[in-house]
Design goal:
The complex is a heterodimer. By secondary structure, chain A is α+β, with helices and mostly antiparallel strands. Chain A has eleven helices and ten strands. In chain A, the strands form two sheets. Chain A has an eight-stranded antiparallel sheet with strand order 2-3-4-5-1-8-10-9. In chain A, strands 6-7 form a two-stranded antiparallel sheet. A two-stranded antiparallel sheet of chain B has the order 1-2. The chains are: A alpha+beta, B mainly alpha.
Amino acid sequence: MNKVKEFNNPLIGKGPEKDVVVSSRIRLARNLENFLFPNKADRKTRSEIIAFLKNNVEVFSSDDYMFMKMDQLDNIEKELLYEKNFISAEHARENSERALVINDNISVMINEEDHLRIQIISPGLNFNELWEKIDLLDDKIEEDVDYAFSEKLGYLTSCPTNVGTGLRASAMCHLPALTLTGRLRNILGAIGKFGLTVRGVYGEGSSSSGGLYQISNQITLGHSEKEIIENLYSILGHIIYEERKSRQLLINNKYDNIKDSVQRSLGILKYSHQIEEEEALKLLAKVKFGHDTGLIEKGDVENDFFSDLLINVRPAHLQISEENIDQENLNIIRSEVIKNKLI
Amino acid sequence: MMLCDRCKKNEAVVYLTKIVNGHKQELHLCEKCAEETGHINFAPDNNLSFQKFLSGVLNSHLFENEKEIKDNNNSKSRKVCSRCGSSFEEFSQKGLFGCAECYDAFSEKLEPLMKRIHGSTYHSGKIPRKIRDTVKYRRDINKLKKLMDEAVAEENFEKAAEIRDKIRVIKNSMEED
């Protein structure tokens, strides 16, 4: 399965509003009518579920798709898939008859919490396009299987928090200015009232998160997929507007402080010899802020450095760049990988 | 500044009073030592998954009276999903159902839960292609029947007859297919 090492980073590339929305992701939870849910199914049944899907779903055997059982992969390969956001941590680490189907930015986890977790991811704010694609794939899969579906409750899922559409749409947002000005707290408080939820991406709730947040719909029942996505668009539109306004405000009123903080971050990244993941991400987020607002020279960093490094500074990705490295070396290699992107 | 009793280096921020065998013991620890000795966990609990939280909500008897708790416990242990054998208790511990039929088996208890989670108890999104037409047809008929009943209740028989004819047309067109 050497190919796993060559999979693309799905966050790289152009996308709308990428200065604020780093990436968009939609996933659908689906189950087969004729099998117990994965958490209740024994090993044999779980293995039958994999075989059933492999043998019956035509689209999975088309040329573009790669079907693999998780136990065919080594640990590094599984971690790479996790770090690239194709699979969950449980799917990478728990070995109990799980499988994965993958095609470019689409991945389908088999025997995760539900029989099927269909997921699509792309750079920038892109939910309409992602929904069109995942809707089509869902239709294709459904041609060959019977989904567990109730007229009243919609698609039936292991956990009732996903029932109905089974759809979770989430945007990874970079909100450094709203975080710095403290205005984020008000906005986040209001978000819950619109059926959305927010969590910090790194270092939950701490200031070290670098201003990265995952914003997603909480409610899956009672609204159509289009309504859920429209709701997310309108809230995100407002957040993007507020973040940009705050960035401008900061630059107008605190130019020297902000520029200093951005340049210091760049300095540490450029001249340190070893660096931990969390510190690296926090500093990279500052540099991204400086890059997006024109505070640092365009030539100082590669254009897509943030989306690239967001994944490439993570442990498994560093480990495939060299054999047999220990934790200390990991921090040295991380520092080198970053320096290469910062020119 | 009071120093930590354990490492004697950092400022003590956690003051503990332990009573072991009736013997009172006071302990002053810094954040690090308190965490290391397992007295307190400062790190955000990453394991507090939605399921665990959900099961907490389900098992919270704070606002129920004793009789309700008793009734609940009795019916909980009795009712089991006929297909997968899961009990409601199992669900409320795991936060996960065992199969699609659990939704039917525990529908009574689910109704208020769905309202709490989603603010709704009806799916209005995508329907699998295979059954899309029949589901839509049934939904249309049900809607019209409701309107017809309302018209009858209002003694607006003319309107009721109109709706009845509409229902007929839809039913006929479905049968032709």
